[in-house]
């Protein structure tokens, strides 16, 4: 597999043997081994910017979110970058048959959306980062509601964790996953083009020693979302329409 190129079957076979396996957990590993061949054989996937993801140590990958297929392609991207990703995901997934086993096995982090316990999920993110893990987060908290798929305003939770832990935040943009698995559909459409690109770490260093007030958190969040949006502009080769 090479940067900015599609993945051939031969390259997939060669890369498969190099995918990180330590710490995946049994059921998470089974899911990866089942889905990886589908991604590289039936998805026209391109990846770039993997050099921005540190090979070890704590890191937050902050991505846009447009489809239920996003975690599959983003997991493939992280694995190809030699990292086993953990997800901050809605707690109801842990109650789903089979998928619940995968979420528990993979040491993912449940969040009770819309409840007073939602903030406790940030403690789980901090613990994972303290353990040197790669944690994938969607700063928007849900699928974008923008009709053209552009990112919405992000929530401040990711910024709060980033400033508290000083873990690097690497922006990631995905495009094509909504075409791969449109909203409301459960069967993916093969041979769709999906692009995933990571950018340079978002610079938050001037905010580290400040009190995490709302203006400070808003500024950090705006930088993170701005970096994601800039990457997406490059992927789509379209100008951003501005705030809606």
Given as residue ranges, the uncertain stretches (5+ residues, pLDDT < 50) are none
Element-level helix/strand string:
HHEEHEHEHEHEHEH
Overall tally of structural domains: 1
Helix-and-strand structural type: alpha/beta
Global outline:
globular
Q: What is the CA-CA span between the terminal residues?
A: 38 Å
What is the CATH architecture annotation? 3-Layer(aba) Sandwich
Using the coordinates above, name the CATH class: Alpha Beta
Instruction: List the strand order in the largest sheet.
Output: 1-7-6-2-5-3-4
CATH superfamily: Glycerol-3-phosphate (1)-acyltransferase
- Average pLDDT confidence is 89
Q: Helical residue percent?
A: 25-40%
Strand portion: 15-25%
The third-level CATH topology is Glycerol-3-phosphate (1)-acyltransferase
Tally of strands: 7
Please describe the biggest sheet, giving its number of strands, its sense, and whether it closes into a barrel: 7 strands, mixed
**Rg from Cα:** 17 Å
Structure in words:
The protein is an alpha/beta fold. It is built from eight helices and seven strands; from the N terminus they run H-H-E-E-H-E-H-E-H-E-H-E-H-E-H. Strands 1-7-6-2-5-3-4 form a seven-stranded mixed beta sheet, sandwiched between helices. Strand 3, helix 4 and strand 4 form a beta-alpha-beta unit. The longest helix has 23 residues. The model has no long low-confidence stretch (mean pLDDT 89).
């Amino acid at each position: 597999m090479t940067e900015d190129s599609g993945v051939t079957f031969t390259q997939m076979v060669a890369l498969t043997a190099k995918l990180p396996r330590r710490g995946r957990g049994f059921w998470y590993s089974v899911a990866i081994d089942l889905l990886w061949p589908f991604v590289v054989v039936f998805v026209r996937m391109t990846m770039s910017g993997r050099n921005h993801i540190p090979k070890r140590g704590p890191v937050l990958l902050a991505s846009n979110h447009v489809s239920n297929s996003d975690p599959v392609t983003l997991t493939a991207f992280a694995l190809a970058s030699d990292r086993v990703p953990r997800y901050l995901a809605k707690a109801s997934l842990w109650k789903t048959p089979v998928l619940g086993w995968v979420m528990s096995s993979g040491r993912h982090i449940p969040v009770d959306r819309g409840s007073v316990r939602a903030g406790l999920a940030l403690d789980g993110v901090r613990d994972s980062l303290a353990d040197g893990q790669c944690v994938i987060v969607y700063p928007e908290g849900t699928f974008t509601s923008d009709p053209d798929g552009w990112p919405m305003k992000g929530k401040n939770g990711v910024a709060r964790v980033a400033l508290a832990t000083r873990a690097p935040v690497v922006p990631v943009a995905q495009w094509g996953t909504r075409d791969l698995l449109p909203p409301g559909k459960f069967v993916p459409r093969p041979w769709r083009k999906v692009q995933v690109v990571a950018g340079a770490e978002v610079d938050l260093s001037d905010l580290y020693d400040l009190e995490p007030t709302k203006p400070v958190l808003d500024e950090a969040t705006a930088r993170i979302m701005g970096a994601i949006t800039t990457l997406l502009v490059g992927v789509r080769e379209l100008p951003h329409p501005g705030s809606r």
